[in-house]
Amino acid sequence: MKTRTPIWQYFDVWLTTAVVLLTAYGVLIISSAITNTPGFVGFETRQIVFAFIGFGTMLVFAALDYRILTSAHWYIYFGLVGLLAFVLQFGTIQNSVSGWIDLGFIRVQPAEFARILITITLGQFIASRQHNMHRFSNTILTLIYIGIPIGMIFLQPDLGMSILFTVTWFGMMMLAGLPLRHFFVLLFVGIGTLIIVYPSLPEYQQARIEVFLDPESDPESDRNIGNAIVSIGSGGWFGLGFKQGTQTQSGFLRVQHTDFIFAVLTHEMGFFFGALVVVGLLGFILLRILRVASLTPDPAGRYICVGVATIIFFQTVVSIGMNLRLLPVTGLTLPFVSYGGSALLSLYIGIGLVQSVLMRHRKQAFG
After folding, report:
1. Which of 57, 129, 214, 360 lies 20 to 30 angstroms, CA to CA, from 51?
2. What residue numbers bound the domain in which 169 lies?
3. Any domain includes 206
4. 291 in helix, strand or coil?
5. Any long-range contacts for 163-169 (C-beta under 8 Å, 24+ apart)?
6. CA Rg value for the chain
């Protein structure tokens, strides 16, 4: 009698270890970033709580057969659309974005979970149509599919998350074989749409773009980015020491526990013990996720992994880029490092999905 191999033997311990280490490092930096800030007392403790909840949730999603989720992708999709519609109508405003649900004891940002769960629904949607990838009508259909939640998030208004969804779609479609001619047509249309939509963007979003293009247009808004660059540069190779940063501990940086946490860790921990550690761990996490994508024979599972990797990669590039004034400020945070319960929990769900795909990549697991 043939025995089935226990799926937990394929659980990627190295991936999990890297995620836990990066999360712990993030808690450490958050505790330094909120020092001398009475309004943020206890934020590092909250992050630890969410890390433990996230770790448990990751194990649950790893144990759950992801194919159960892909088979229910329409239910998940309409659930996400319905939730985003609810948030758009009744959401709580925070940082000029009405994208939060206030549960009394905690605020939840559904878009953070939607960015991960959309990889399941879009992955299955693409997999069921990959034989039509050469058709432009199929490309438009997938764009409409992802465009509905993007439009709802854009109206919150959350430009950064809208762009993240678009990039995730692009990454998954490229893996599926998106023809270059389709890409260039959509790129041209997209640029035209941005030009048309720009005047209707909220003033604070227009200001972020204008400050990026012309720092002198608003010296006050640009000052924080300038302070971030000074913080990064003054950190040198080894940093000024944990909780010893002259910039970070003196209140020169705003939102330094979220948007500008990269400036904090490089200022205090330097290049070797700050930037190199974080970028190295993130790079290792991405390689392990892409390894799973290369191992699984299931197209939907492969697209899920690439979707999760695209989210982590894009947020990392944007977060570091805006700290270095290479990209405009968007509000996207550094994965696993920046403060944020919804963001951290959703990322752990993403890692759990990747683990689920890996644990069932062998043929006997598909019996």
Report:
1. 360
2. 9-362
3. yes
4. helix
5. 163/330, 164/115, 164/311, 164/314, 164/315, 164/332, 165/115, 165/118, 167/310, 167/314, 168/115, 168/118, 168/119, 168/122, 168/307, 168/310, 168/311, 168/314, 169/122, 169/142, 169/143
6. 21
Nearest one of 295, 301, 284 to 354, comparing CA atoms: 301
Residue 1's pLDDT band (boundaries 50, 70, 90)?
very low
How many residues are there in the chain?
A: 367
* Cα–Cα distance measured from residue 190 to residue 314, given in angstroms and rounded to the nearest whole number: 18
Tokens of 194: 């941005």
Alpha carbon dihedral 203, 207, 208, 212, in 10-degree steps, equals 160
Question: How far apart are alpha carbons 183 and 51 in whole angstroms?
Answer: 38
In a domain, 68, yes or no: yes
Q: What is the DSSP letter of 101?
A: E
pLDDT, tens only, 284-322: 999 999 999 999 999 999 999 999 999 999 999 999 999
Q: Are strands 97-102 and 92-94 parallel, antiparallel or unpaired?
A: antiparallel
Q: How many domains does the chain have?
A: 1
| Strand order across the beta sheet in which 107-108 lies | 92-94, 97-102, 107-108
Residue 82 lies in a domain: yes
Give the model confidence (pLDDT) of 237-246 as tens digits: 999 999 998 8
Report d(CA 107, CA 105) in Å as an integer. Answer: 7
pTM for this model (two decimals)? 0.94
**DSSP three-state, residue 243:** coil
**Encoding tokens for residue 259?**
């948007």
